[in-house]
Amino acid sequence: MSGVLEVLNPGLGNGIQDAGRFGYRHMGITVSGCLDRPLARCANALAGNAADAACIEVRVMGPALKVVQGPVCLAVAGNMVPKVRRADGRQEEAPAWRSVTLDVGDVLETGTVRGGVAYIAVGGGFDTPVQLGSRSTYQRALIGGIDGRLLAKGDSLPCGVPADPLQGERHAAPWTCDECPIRVILGPQQEHFTAAALQEFVNSAYTVTPQMDRMGMRLDGPPLKHVTPEAADIVSDGVTPGVIQVPGNGQPIILLADCQTVGGYPKIATVISADLPRLAQRKPGDVLRFRAVDAAEAKAALLDLESRWRAWADTLVQETTDDDAAWAAI
Amino acid sequence: MNSNETGGMVQARLLPVGDTAWTVEFGSVIDPALHARVLGLTEALEKARKDALFSAIVDVVPTFRSLTVHFDPLRCDGQRLGEALLNLAQTSGAKQAEGRQWCLPVCFDDEFAPDLAELAQIKGMTREAVIERLTAAEFRVYMIGFMPGFPYMGGLPAELQMPRLASPRKAVPERSLAVAGEMCAVYPWESPGGWRLLGRTPVPMFSAADPVPALLASGDRVHWRGIDRDTYLELEAAAKAGTLDRSSLLLPEGGRS
Lengths: 330, 257
What we know:
The complex is a heterodimer of chains A (330) and B (257).
Chain A: E1 4-9, E2 15-17, H1 37-46, E3 55-58, E4 64-69, E5 72-77, E6 83-85, E7 91-93, E8 100-102, E9 107-109, E10 118-122, E11 156-158, E12 170-171, E13 182-186, H2 195-203, E14 206-212, E15 216-220, E16 237-238, E17 243-245, E18 253-255, E19 262-263, E20 267-271, H3 276-280, E21 287-288, E22 290-292, H4 295-314, E23 317-318, H5 322-329
Parallel strand pairs in A: 13-22
Antiparallel strand pairs in A: 1-4, 1-11, 2-3, 3-10, 4-9, 5-8, 5-10, 6-7, 6-9, 12-23, 13-20, 14-15, 14-21, 15-18, 16-19, 17-18, 17-20
Chain B: H1 2-5, E1 13-16, E2 21-25, H2 32-48, E3 57-62, E4 66-71, H3 78-91, E5 101-107, H4 116-123, H5 127-136, E6 139-144, E7 151-154, E8 169-172, E9 176-180, E10 183-186, E11 191-193, E12 196-200, E13 221-227, H6 229-241
Parallel strand pairs in B: 5-13
Antiparallel strand pairs in B: 1-2, 2-4, 3-4, 6-7, 6-13, 7-10, 8-11, 9-10, 9-12
């Protein structure tokens, strides 16, 4: 039987996300999806799911979830220290990077995420309705998630059917990402900026400001000058997550998963797809540096990310359940 | 050839948007001839999508003056895809907007058109004359963007053109018909906005439950038809009840009778 969770406390800013919604950007519908996809894949692997099953993305304060139909296997990936309150009142540590099976009446309390984003996966994945090919929450168009919105107190979250419900708990080493500069491909509108601005962009430190959400992050640093004041505007053209647009004030804005589909500010550069997950882990006050790369290096970085993820998946340990031991003894 | 008459001589440029998209750019301004090239490439690419070379494409976004093609970099050689797109752009030619022709109802009552009287006054026209010009014009949908279903339409008659409001409204009511410069649009939802509001349509621009959620598409043409308040309320109620048939808003083939 598939599980159901009740949202006892919605936390802050938490929504269902999966790999995103493709094929609708010509209608103005953003891609959405997990800000840090490798990390979401970790949570899913720990819960025994396929890579892109729907998870809860936690950005600030995580939810408290009670099992009302179960058992349910849960796993948290990210910088959080969750706890379990069992139905009989017992409190247990339930660290990230380790799955835990909860029975009816048990509660997972996730607390705050210490920087960046974290993911909560359940065995079978969250089975909220698929809209336009995805379960990802897109609040602006009221699509996906729970009636197009984030988690709210009292919501009932259905879980899918786990691939193998008899398996034991899984654990793995934390997935980490390094601190090297954020790699970008210059353009599409680098010619709207002075040569000095392009130098400044790759040689300076930019601070992440508190103005950051799933749509984008505003940075603060040396202003990037356009060749003329008029060059600070373009007739809107296509954008994608990772695009770094620079309005007239010269302060860059990096667009993220929930960004609009077209934009009217010139784009000095675009963060390569392999580094979007690293951006997701930055928080206000963090300092970013950029390094320009070519398409070949971007592709190599993406393949390297894939192989590093597979190496992480190799650290995944499946514990033997008592049932398995009993079978082995026969 | 038709393409030579309508921007066909314009050289397309290939611009990288990171490692997951290319923008094929035909020019930097708003111009029906450039948009015709965008539509030409959009159609050519649609026909070529079965080709293995284009199988990694995930989204195709036409804008005023360019086509942005999003792809999965793990499923293709991005450089080869870019070259193929540029080649296609050089041969796809221009395509006149042959999208659907819509006749959309709009109510111009004061409560729905807070900027209509002021625009008429500034332009030295009567309210009726403004409405007459607006409903006689044909609007071309250049692109959908800003928010889901939001249509950027060109074709506002020169005598009605005005800049955006100096101070944007905190809340523009949903389905407001709005103009700015030479552009016309409808806000799909209540949202902040600086365009001038000249009326309100009862027709939703976006319905998530529909397999094709956005009402309008790049290349469509739109005519406005004035309706009174009672008709507005009737159609709005029908839309809310899900009984407003989108196809009833299409003009018959061959254009406006």
